[in-house]
Write a structure and sequence with these properties.
6-stranded parallel beta sheet; oxidoreductase activity; Rossmann fold; 7-stranded mixed beta sheet; 2 domains
Length: about 375
């Protein structure tokens, strides 16, 4: 059963880039055609959320706005055109918003307007606010129904732990885009951050053999132990990134045929050569999902001579989300601390949440705000 919707609610408002977030009381929005009002139960905090709102990352978005990313909550009310959603349902609220008349126009809610005229307009005028709030107005199509009985009942997931799927979904979008298959070998690089670690978790759950690359050898050892604890039969290897392209390539050669690469290189690592090392070891017709940033991702002759397919990918598609939750409901992932170690904070403790998120990184680690 749904509860009455209050006339006002609390939300974290960013008035200007570089200013602190303010816990404010705002009028609660009303559902209209194409929208739903969701009572937020948990909202993800990125490791670099503080850098985004402080201006360090120079992401472009309108202000003032309610901060946020993806979230999980319950439908509080729905627009008159809703046909599958109903009040009280537990839903995943996707942060990737697309124009209904042009699916190529997209942006990340409360994160980045992408810079294209259409997405700038859509974020500024319609879907400006994120999910760091007690209630959020979101597009109907961004609400993915969750099988609460299966996920939280049979399998025993906590709602705050289910928020880890926002990292897992991103990795799944890249891996599904290059059609990773069970039994194949995939390099995930770098694998020591939240998205890279999620890539390892997803690839293992898809039945692949994983080679995880990273500079932090301590974190790589933790990653390997984490995977084996949650998936005892998983094939997981690690390779240190040295910064020496030839040495890294030789290290990868010890593991035989490599079918695919999933890359999450952050902007500050754009000149790193580790991706060239990984792509150089791909078999003929190997595939690369580039979800990060690399100035020189592949040696030209390797790409041409081995017919390597290099494919960029932003986030995931709606069909990917639906298919991923089927995997989750099928029990393909671990539960509890072997799935994720979640640190939860109230809205008023957003600064501590941001600081914790910057440090609590890597495979199986997540931070959420709970309104």
């Amino acid at each position: 059963m749904s509860s009455p919707i209050p006339t006002h609610h609390r939300a974290l408002v960013l008035k200007d880039v570089g200013s602190p977030l303010h816990l404010s009381t705002l009028p609660t929005p009303h559902a209209t055609h194409g929208s739903a009002i969701v009572r937020i139960e948990a909202a993800s905090v990125l490791s670099y959320h503080g850098e985004i709102y402080s201006g360090v990352r120079a992401y472009h978005f309108p202000t003032p706005l309610v901060g946020g990313f993806s979230a999980i909550g319950r439908i509080a009310s729905i627009g008159p055109d809703a046909t599958a959603l109903s009040p009280g349902q537990l839903v995943y609220v996707d942060c990737t918003i697309r124009a209904r008349d042009d699916p190529d126009t997209q942006f990340l809610s409360a994160i980045h307007d992408s810079g294209a005229p259409g997405s700038v307009k859509l974020m500024r005028d319609v879907w400006r606010d994120g999910n760091f709030a007690e209630y959020a107005n979101v597009p109907l199509e961004n609400c993915i129904k969750l099988n609460e009985g299966r996920l939280c009942g049979d399998l025993g997931y906590e709602v705050q732990d289910l928020m880890h799927v926002d990292f897992l979904l991103t990795a799944y979008g890249g891996l599904r885009d290059i059609r990773l298959e069970a039994g194949e070998t995939v390099v995930v690089c770098p694998a020591t951050g939240n998205f890279g670690g999620a890539g390892v978790q997803v690839a293992v759950s898809m039945g692949a053999r994983v080679i995880a690359m990273g500079r932090n050898m301590t974190e790589l050892r933790r990653l390997k132990d984490f995977v084996r604890a949650g998936s005892p039969g998983a094939e997981i290897e690690t390779v240190g990134i040295t910064g020496d392209e030839k040495a890294d390539t030789e290290a990868l050669s010890a593991f035989g045929t490599i079918d695919a690469v999933l890359d999450f290189t952050p902007p500050q690592g754009i000149k790193s050569t580790h991706l060239r090392s990984a792509t150089s070891m791909l078999r003929r017709n190997g595939r690369v999902s580039m979800m990060g940033f690399s100035e020189s991702p592949v040696a030209p002759w390797a790409m041409v001579s081995k017919s390597i397919r290099l494919q960029g990918k932003l986030m995931y598609e709606r069909e990917d989300m639906v298919q991923f939750f089927k995997m989750l409901e099928a029990g393909r992932f671990a539960v509890g601390k072997q799935f994720v170690d979640t640190k939860a904070f109230e809205l008023g403790d957003w600064k501590a949440a941001f600081d914790t998120a910057a440090e609590h990184t890597g495979i199986g680690r997540h931070v959420v705000l709970k309104p």
